[in-house]
Structures are given as C-alpha cells and as structure tokens.
Protein: GNAT family N-acetyltransferase
Organism: Vibrio amylolyticus
Amino acid sequence: MYVREAQAQELDAIYAMGCDVWSDDLSYEEYLNVCRNSEKYQAGIWYVLVENDQILSSLIVYHDIFGLKDDCFGIGSVATPNSLRGRGYATTLVNLVKDELFFYHNGKAIFLHSDIDNKFYSRLGFVEIKGTGCMYISNRHFGFDGSVPAYF
Ligand SMILES: CC(C)(COP(=O)(O)OP(=O)(O)OC[C@H]1O[C@@H](n2cnc3c(N)ncnc32)[C@H](O)[C@@H]1OP(=O)(O)O)[C@@H](O)C(=O)NCCC(=O)NCCS
C-alpha cells in the first residue's frame, strides 16, 4: 500500500468517493460536473492510497492558498469508496500524507476543517483550535500564532 499524487484520468473516480455525502440534491452527472469545474479542487493536489492498482482512498492537499502560511498545508475532502469504508484506508492515507508533507515538503503544520466527528482526526494526532472546527497537527518547529486558515 502506498501513496502517490493522483493522475488526471483518476479524478472522476476520486470525486465519486464522496458523492454520497457531498452531492446534495444533484444527480451523479451534475455532481461530477460541479467537481470537474471546481476552482477549489483545481487549486489543490489530489493524493491517493493505492494497492494492486486499486485506489482505496483519496484526499486533496492545499498550499499557499486559503491563508495557509509558508510551510503550512491544508488537507481536505478525505473520502473512501462506500464499499471499502471501515478498513483503515483513510487513516492510512492521512498518516502517509502527513509523513510526506512533514518529511519531503518541509511542512511544519497541516490544517483541516472537519465535516465529521473530530474523534476521527484527533486519533491521528490533530488538535482542535477551540471553537473553530479547524484542526491542526504540527512539528516542533511550528509556533502557532492563532490564525485560522479560511474554510477549504
Ligand atoms: C470518513 C471516511 C473518509 C472514513 O474512511 P474510512 O476509510 O472508512 O476510514 P477508516 O477505516 O480509516 O476509519 C474508520 C473510522 O472513521 C469513522 N467515521 C466514518 N464516518 C464518520 C463520520 N461521519 N463521523 C465520525 N467518524 C466517522 C468510523 O466511525 C470509523 O471509526 P472506528 O474505527 O472507531 O469504527 C469515509 O467514511 C468517507 O469517505 N465518508 C464520506 C466523506 C466524508 O465525510 N469525509 C470526511 C471529510 S472531513
């Protein structure tokens, strides 16, 4: 199992992973079109967890946008296909992306805005910035100044 950046032809499959919670009242095709045209999605880099050529989970990484400071990253849109949930794939993906950003991209802190119970992310070491819904994890070189990135 490993993590890599997603390829362009994988994006529809990635968008489909969160369709059950993020499509609102849209049809599947309408939802895909919204995702394909999303400026937010175009501003980030998608990462996927892969095993035997199968994509098991995905998330997007933001940098230099949404008020994220130098050396800070944002992660979002974590999703696993419905049929593969509950097997630890999102946990593995977030952990591997964390390592990638801290060790290979000199990240000092990673922020996220949780749409789900914070417990999922606090188990992974993220701490909540009280009263904001925003969480972060940092290394020892990061001095948090209290500024919260915009929602992403
Ligand atoms: C949340 C999600 C990414 C978890 O993926 P996964 O591969 O099943 O995750 P894991 O197997 O690593 O972890 C499963 C844990 O996530 C928890 N979880 C799943 N959905 C949750 C939710 N809506 N609120 C809180 N926790 C949730 C499960 O309770 C489970 O905890 P347990 O191990 O104590 O039973 C997946 O359910 C999903 O794609 N949901 C739809 C998109 C979404 O809401 N993403 C979150 C954006 S912040």
Q: What stands out?
A: Helices lie at 11-17, 19-22, 28-36, 39-42, 89-104, 119-122. The pocket of coenzyme A is lined by residues 17-18, 21, 57, 78-80, 85-91, 114-117, 120 (CB under 6 Å). The chain has one domain: 2-138. The chain has a mean pLDDT of 96.
